[in-house]
């Protein structure tokens, strides 16, 4: 997901603060969900495009980074190969949403 | 975040189904939050470790992949460099949580 | 929030199944958040009105009920008077969002 | 859910600010989910009991009130009878989780 050297930095950041003790898979899943909500909060009352989107971008970058960080810890701690997980999920989605049936249909978008 | 070639596959998957029309930043943020909740749902009533965690892993891999997919679409559509976003957030966290003050303290864990 | 007699039924439902042991405040908060996401999931790719909303209503009623149930358990277990909590929050919102400044402005909507 | 007179106050609070325009069912569902996440955030890194729980209570009351407020707007706008919705959901749960099978088992707790 992120370059190995950056992942190592994240692991070091956590180790230096002795935070592994708080990073159970369940706690990481809670934080992942909370950070994803902070991404959504930027869109709570608006659907920004163009100029308006540019205004939101700096905070959005930070919140998206938080999601990526917790996703990285979860994958590292549980030995999940994110790239392989995405490939396998895409294969499932190809079966579930064949182009012929899904083209232009929101109903058939993954959820 | 993911190898360029895999990101291109994700973009192609979406384009073939003509789904860009549904992938506004706001809709992607909603889906990111919903998928992160599906990760958390695997931990709703339990805090699995070891053996019990192995049972959860296959579904966890799939849900984590969904989070990564929506994160990738968001970054691609908004021209967000995830690696740079994480580096900048880590820099902020280093300032906010100096080792001396944060060591072993959950209160000072990012939220 | 709900009639006392219905709240008592909820408490009995839980007691008969010996589920109080799982209903820690933290677990109830996780479930509250998961059920609220299931409400949102009904709107993941669409913004239904009129006819389309009628289609969603039966599932929406069930998901909203789940949110209300966990909210009720949380308030009961923590001795929170929901009515008083809402009155106090409204008072705060009146200060925070005076009509003169907030009228017709989404930016000034509570979040 | 709340006394009619308090619900009327909530409707008046919204009308005075001309906020109905932002309160589409979809937007209310987003806000419901965000507020439920703010409840969960109070438990992000801790599982407070007794004394520690007392510390969290004031903020918890406010966040729980926000959830109740958006739940109330949703029910009012969509003509959902929350009490009846909860009764019907409990009936479903009684079928789904018979005491004999569910007693003391987290796996069989609703999700």
Describe the model.
Four copies of one chain form a homotetramer. The first copy, chain A, is mostly helical. The first copy, chain A, has one domain: MazG-like (Helix Hairpins). Chain A contains five helices and no strands. In chain A, helix 2 packs antiparallel against helix 3. Chains A and B meet through helix 1, helix 2, helix 3 and helix 4 of A and helix 1, helix 2, helix 3 and helix 4 of B.
- CATH topology annotation of chain A: Helix Hairpins
Give the CATH H-level superfamily of chain A.
MazG-like
Number of helices of chain A: 5
CATH class bucket of chain A: Mainly Alpha
Amino-to-carboxy terminus distance of chain A: 22 Å
- Poorly predicted residue ranges of chain A: none
**Quick check: average pLDDT of chain A?**
95
Class per helix and strand makeup of chain A:
mainly alpha
Biggest interface, which chains? Answer: A-B, 70 and 70 residues
Envelope shape of chain A: globular
Number of strands of chain A: 0
Helix and strand sequence of chain A: HHHHH
